[in-house]
Amino acid sequence: MTKRLEEFDFEAACRALGSVSESSPAESREAVELAAYALQFLYVTDQLPSFREYLRDIKEPATREAHVEHVFDDMPHAVEWLKESAPAPGVYVKVGERTYEVWRASDGKLLLVPHVSSADLDSDS
Known about the structure:
elongated
């Protein structure tokens, strides 16, 4: 029986990436090395458990609704809360009828990014 993707062995995956990198054509080697560094980054920053959860969730059908922690009437109120509260990335909020997720940009600034739910996808078809 094959293990689920999120149950990968970290050390075996790193060894496999190293082996693949050595035998890859030059144009593919950089991408394989990048994947190895990304995996190492997740490990050293203690984000590997979150990555495993992501892998588990990404393979599931998009049927789960986001758990909304705060509801705002309008975007100015939501942005004010975002600045004052500094919530953790991954928190879901509702602004009007729309759901947003808190993300952290590369510069460290918190953002509200629209979250697409399965209901949103159903209503668009």
